[in-house]
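Re: [ENG-882] Designed sequences occasionally contain unexpected residues at chain ends

Forwarding the minimal case from QA. Structure tokens:
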């Protein structure tokens, strides 16, 4: 057990930077010994971490028999357990241990996903439309005038169907075709506004069930949804 714990401790230490890419979405109280958490993974996939007598996660890494980083994340950032706590490395927990873990929960506010992501997820899981906390977004849009910042050709109101605008930031307009070229130039990086560089929101692209079968809200959070494996700790299997 000691050797196995040391391996897991090294795994946490070497993957600590990747913890910064995880975000806490929501918690569902089932009973005194069962709580479920939605976790936004490093590429925007949403995984369900269940802390009960036998903790589990819906991610592929846990499915391969590994104690995944999403479970570690909930233990360390939501329940605020010490990294040396024996609870973290146990495959099963006693009722008294669960009581102790749940009683001392103090979620780190810095790991909470943004409000729009949480609203989108709530809409998806409950079927209830959550009101836009930003009010009437069209009030943010600038008049269609001047020149496109990419092609420098005029922007005209009559061509409004072929014009997109920055909904999350400055409200400025540009040609849709020009913006598509801008997106392609990013080559997998976050797509930002040409003007203000804020992460770009596109209607209809926010909620996605990807080819892995997971709901992915990376676009809403402004995350790169393409997995970067170059920083994985080679001695261990890839973490999702």
């Amino acid at each position: 057990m000691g050797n196995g714990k040391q391996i897991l401790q090294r795994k946490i230490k070497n993957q600590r930077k990747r913890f910064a890419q995880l975000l806490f979405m929501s918690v569902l109280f089932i009973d005194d010994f069962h709580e479920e958490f939605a976790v936004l993974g490093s590429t925007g996939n949403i995984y369900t971490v269940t802390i009960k007598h036998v903790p589990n996660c819906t991610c592929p890494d846990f499915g391969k028999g590994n104690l995944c980083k999403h479970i570690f994340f909930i233990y360390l950032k939501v329940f605020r357990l010490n990294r040396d706590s024996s609870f973290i490395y146990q495959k099963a927990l006693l009722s008294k241990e669960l009581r102790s873990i749940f009683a001392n929960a103090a979620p780190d506010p810095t790991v909470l996903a943004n409000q729009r992501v949480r609203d989108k997820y709530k809409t998806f899981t409950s079927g209830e439309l959550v009101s836009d906390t930003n009010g009437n977004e069209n009030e943010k849009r600038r008049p269609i005038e001047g020149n496109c910042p990419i092609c420098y050709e005029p922007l005209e109101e009559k061509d409004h169907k072929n014009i997109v605008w920055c909904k999350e930031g400055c409200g400025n307009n540009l040609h849709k075709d020009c913006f598509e070229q801008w997106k392609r130039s990013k080559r997998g990086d976050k797509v930002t506004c040409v003007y203000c560089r804020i992460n770009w929101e596109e209607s209809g692209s926010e909620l996605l069930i990807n080819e892995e079968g997971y709901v992915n809200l990376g676009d809403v959070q402004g995350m790169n949804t393409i997995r970067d494996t170059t920083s994985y700790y080679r001695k261990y299997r890839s973490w999702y």
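QA comment: On inspection the terminal residues look reasonable. The first strand starts at residue 23 and ends at 31. Proposing we downgrade this to a documentation issue.
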